[in-house]
Design a protein that fits this description.
Number of strands: 13
CATH superfamily: NADP-dependent oxidoreductase domain
CATH architecture: Alpha-Beta Barrel
Strand content: 15-25%
Distance between the termini: 30 Å
Order of helices and strands: EEEHHHEHEHEHEEHEEHEHEHEH
CATH class: Alpha Beta
Helix content: 25-40%
Radius of gyration: 20 Å
Oligomer: single chain
CATH topology: TIM Barrel
Number of domains: 1
Length: 289
């Protein structure tokens, strides 16, 4: 039974929590050593176990740059176990100037994204932000790419680190159904202050898929999730990556608590420095004797 709230994006029913893939594929935003640990630790079986936890709660959408190889195998295993399909949001990059590698030409890349089973094709930040012209308030050539995406039966969006991308899209009427935007309480990788991005999201014409709510591990889950869930709209989404099934369960439980305006009742982590608190009301969860 689905327990997680949903929204609608481009006519598609979507969970408001989306499975991120950085912690499957080795993009820690911390160090090369951490990246290597993720790559060495994760395999298709472990990724499938994490995805299965999300699917049990009705969270059936995943975002990433590539759904091939181990990711393809992991998603297939989780889908078979759950008896439901996972909505794939793919964020490709491709040539935006002549003379690039032939395999990176937009037509070939979009054909490949379609073959990966993508419902949403959202050009990556490396593409989108390179096309943004702040002088004229436009995203150059974006209509060429969204048309190619539509021709292949996928829903176009864009991924950005630049908050201007959203109002430029809306002001110019580009064929974009949703936007990926960094948003977290630490301001990590954000180009302007969090309150400015908060206003951009609030004023967006289409639903926003926020990413990096925990600032790549720099924020505790209760802190990062409390901020994003309480400052986005009902149609907006949060994308989060997890390494293990337990992390996925924790993220889901905390998110449901914040969406219901409840204080979390999750079990706290115990260390020797907190021993004096263990027998006090500070440690006990609500309702715990």
């Amino acid at each position: 039974m689905d327990t997680f709230p949903r929204t609608v994006v481009g006519g598609v029913s979507m969970p408001r929590l989306i499975i991120g893939t950085n912690w499957f594929r080795g993009y820690s935003h911390t160090s090369l050593a951490k990246d290597r640990f993720i790559v060495e630790y994760q395999d298709a079986k472990r990724v499938a176990a994490v995805v299965s936890v999300f699917l049990e709660a009705g969270i059936d959408a995943v975002m990433g740059g590539d759904m091939r190889g181990p990711m393809k195998d992991a998603l297939a295993e989780a889908e078979q176990k759950a008896g439901r399909a996972v909505i794939r949001i793919v964020t490709p990059h491709f040539n935006i100037k002549p003379g690039g590698p032939p395999e990176m030409e937009p037509e070939r890349v979009f054909d490949d994204v379609k073959a990966q089973g993508a419902t949403f094709c959202m050009p990556h930040q490396a593409v989108t932000d390179a096309l943004i012209d702040r002088r004229d308030g436009v995203i150059r050539d974006i209509g060429v790419y969204t048309r190619m995406i539509r021709e292949r039966g996928m829903i176009p969006g864009l991924s950005t680190h630049m908050p201007e991308a959203i109002p430029y899209t809306d002001n110019n009427g580009y064929d974009i159904e949703t936007y990926i935007q960094i948003y977290n309480a630490a301001g990590f990788l954000m180009q302007v202050e969090a309150d400015w991005v908060m206003r951009v999201i609030r004023n967006a014409a289409k639903p926003v898929m926020t990413i990096k709510p925990l600032a790549a591990g720099r924020l505790l889950p209760p802190v990062g999730l409390a901020f994003v869930w309480n400052t986005i709209r009902d149609q907006d989404m949060v994308t989060i990556g997890c390494t293990t099934p337990d992390e996925a369960r924790e993220v889901i439980e905390l998110s449901l608590d914040f969406l219901e305006r409840r204080l979390p009742a999750n079990e706290l982590q115990r260390t020797r420095s907190k021993k004096s608190l263990e027998s006090s009301f500070v440690y006990r969860a609500p309702g715990e004797a």
